[in-house]
Amino acid sequence: MEEKNVTKISLSTFFLILAIIAIIVMGIFIYKLNNDKTAEIQKSTELQSQVNNLNGTVSDLQEKINKVSETINSSGKTTNYENSNNTDATSSKNKTLEEANVTNNVNKTGLIGETTYEIGNSATNHLDGFDVILEDSKVYFKLTNKEKIKSYSITDSTINRVENKKEEITGFNGKVKKVYFYQVGQTIMPDSLAILFLMEDGKIEYISYVDALQTNDLRSRGEIAGIYNISDIYSASAREWVDKTGGPGWESCIAKDSSNNYYSLEIAFEKNNIDLSKVK
User: Fold this and answer.
1) Distances (CA, A) of 202 to 63, 91, 256
2) How far is residue 117's CA from residue 108's CA, in Å, rounded to a whole number?
3) What pTM does this model have?
4) What mean pLDDT value characterizes the chain?
5) Residue 219 pairs with which residues in a beta bridge?
6) Do 197 and 206 meet the contact criterion of CB atoms below 8 Å apart?
7) Are the C-beta atoms of 125 and 253 separated by less than 8 Å?
């Protein structure tokens, strides 16, 4: 009887030990499983953080790319006709007056109409060989290089000006505000050159280059009819054929009035039947 009790105790001890071992193994397994899960969560958190950082970097890069694109587009679209140095029809940006929100006054002579013009600089440059000087509302013409002027073949007749002599231009119907120079066409021709005088009342008076070189009495020919309230005059590239056929454009001259209406002085001279090639 006593022997049976010993056997029972031994078996109980054995099973207890097995149970303890099983509990230990399961604990170790659960601990390892928990550690693995924690590690996976940590890795997932780190990966998510890296993804978030990458998204932020991509967003920053995209924002910079957008800013660069906006800058490029902005510089490409900006057109300042009054300050543009490029009036060459073959390399222009195809900016028309309509794109600049320019309106035309149909009641005035010299309407630009459907011809596309690209406005250049203020028309204050002229051919080398002479100066036009504005002093206290008086205007003076001075021939500085007779041989240079002869090389342009503006006139076949004798040039009546004396080199480096300042001679006053008279006959104006008011005070001269500013002097400009009119040149149209693709080559220098006597019938396409004039000196323009913007008057304080906004009208334009003129003499031709032929007048300035040949007359004994330097006098204004008077105003260009149909053009009023002018604020500035610009050189321009006329592009009537360029956009449609790829043909050449030509140099022209544009006047702007105080209401930002633009007028072709080339058309104004034609409509007023003005002949610049002959001395008046």
Assistant:
1) 50, 33, 10
2) 18
3) 0.61
4) 76
5) 170
6) yes
7) no
